[in-house]
Amino acid sequence: MTPYPSTAPRTDHRYAFTVGFDLDLTLVDSRPGIRAAYAALAAATGTHIDLDLVISRLGPPLVEELRNWFPEEEVAEANALYLAGYPQHGIAPSPAMPGARESLAAIRELGGRAIVVTAKNPRNARLHLDHLGIDAEELIGDLWAEDKALALRAHGASVYVGDHIGDVLGARKAGALAVAVPTGPYGVAELSAAGADVVLPGGLTDFPAWLRGHRAGPTDRHQADRHQAD
Q1: What is the mean pLDDT of the chain?
Q2: How much helix, strand and coil, in percent to the nearest 5, is found in the chain?
Q3: Model-level pTM?
Q4: What is the DSSP string of 118-165?
């Protein structure tokens, strides 16, 4: 688990470039696991939680969603219960998103490294990566939206890939290229309108080809970005 990063840029000369990724609905289809974890929380607390509604708006920090179902004085306890039960309920049902492993392999083939910057609890995020064999060089958790820029800058990420408008905001604040995938709550048009530099219509299955074009040079890079955004 990587500690909360400083804001000083960190350059690792072993790698030609760094790409950051969001976790939920970008690298991991965590919807089945999150649904199971919320169902267990509802059963343990006797609280009604609309599981379909929760799954439809993944992205923001856990406590923000819990406030929709628990009074403020009970949110901290519900948060602790959910996090404690997540390893049992949330990990095994959640597969990798199509193209996730291939995307990290493409980064390494081109001499780069991949990091994961997520709003998720870092322990549970690590369990997902380990379970699925997704081997990122760094993992930074508990960061959401613009706050993700702290980690992206600290690790020198030039590209950040995510499914949420909050990911676009974090990338842009960090000065990284905002690459969006419509595998979460937002479609291509919404992500483009939010300021994504590139939207990959096929999700991460489009990423390896886009990355090769992006790294090929200024002319080819512009053409590749424009092609994928159209």
Answers
A1: 91
A2: 50, 10, 40
A3: 0.89
A4: -SS-HHHHHHHHHHHT---SEEE-S--GGGHHHHHHHTT-SEEEESSH
